[in-house]
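Before a colleague's protein record goes any further, I have to sign it off. What it holds is a sequence and that sequence's fold in token form. My question to you is simply how this chain folds and whether the tokens agree. Thanks in advance; the entry in question is below:
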Amino acid sequence: MLEVIDLDVSYGPIRAVKGVSLNVGNGEMVALLGANGAGKSSTLLAIAGALRAAAGKIILEGEDVTTLSPERMVQKGLAMVPETRDVFPDLTVMENLKLGAFTQRHNKAGETEDREKMVKLFPILAERANQAAGTLSGGEQQMLVVARAMMSHPRILLLDEPSLGLAPTIVDRIFEMIEQLKNTGLTILLVEQNASKALEVADRAYVMRLGQIAASGSVADIATAYDLKALYLGG
């Protein structure tokens, strides 16, 4: 589904991502782990088209999409949920979902059906349907931005730190939601600092350190790696 080859991302003279290569198979959930500042989010932003790659290639379903804009990437079937958890705060939950269906805007019946699917998948959103998104809790906002991304009919979803800043009980609910999405057959690339939770739901994992891939393998391999703690903490 997705192949990243020797990706470099720079901020001026600073190379945040250095020759990263990874792949995600159709229907897989792959975790990208690492400490804050390891380059995980920059990698996702480059894949989504929000950052220009300084070098390397991004291949989506066999097509080179390295230079495409975020809008074109959405049209190609890739959606990203950024760690900033951006909702349109003055709009209702339903209005936020409607904006997520921009690429489906000529199919009103399909858009309505999609919104109904999302509120079934995330029942709390049905309860908050006419509530301003800015008044939702952090966990509810996270569910809303994921549901909004799903309104574009992605075949691959990039999730950036979905548990960031949430209470432990809410984190459990968020990962239950992620597992539900996985069970629909959706392909997912998950960036997460909470390694233990990510490894519970992922099929495979990569560990980033200082802008590079430091380890990769099955969940079992990564979970039992003797040096995982050192890699993860940058030690």
